[in-house]
Amino acid sequence: MIIKPTSSTIQPVVTPEKVILGVDPGTMIAGYGIISVKGGTMSMIQYGVVQLSKYTTYQLKLQKLYETILRLIDEYHPDEMAIEDPFFGKNVQAMLKLGRAQGVVMAAALSRNIPIVEYAPRRIKQSVTGNGNASKDQVSQMVGHLLKEDLDPKFFDATDALAIAVCHHFHENALPVAPGKKNKKGAWGAFVSENSDRIL
Question: Is 157 annotated in the active site?
């Protein structure tokens, strides 16, 4: 006898959970934000800052930043990392130091085979607030609204990191997926597998 399932036995299809780690690198303070995406709904897992100003040498700062990001990766197992793209400024020394911090953060992700994507600061603000010139306070407020969280306005580096993760979620859904192909990591996972030469 064949028994047809009734509506009460049919389980709804839920998109597999994805964890995104957003990082706002810095030489004095670095921010991080971790979000999960399930069924298209974002929620915050954790956010915070890495205080680096207390360390006496730049090499020690980089070491502590690397160890902290690696510890976050091992604890929360993100599927992808989003990071703020390097920007050009007048202070060459500051740019070099920031670039090293970004490199250390990326090295931590690469050591765990986590895909990395970079976004320009203006693009992050545009994606989250609709205004590429939004202030840090405006970004923080909108991120809190999107994640339904009461975020501490004192931790702008952390809320910026959450904004980077949110920006990545918004943009990865627009990445092309080849017809007939499915990937448990979603559109970004498919993009990585089909464009491995373009990914760091």
Answer: yes
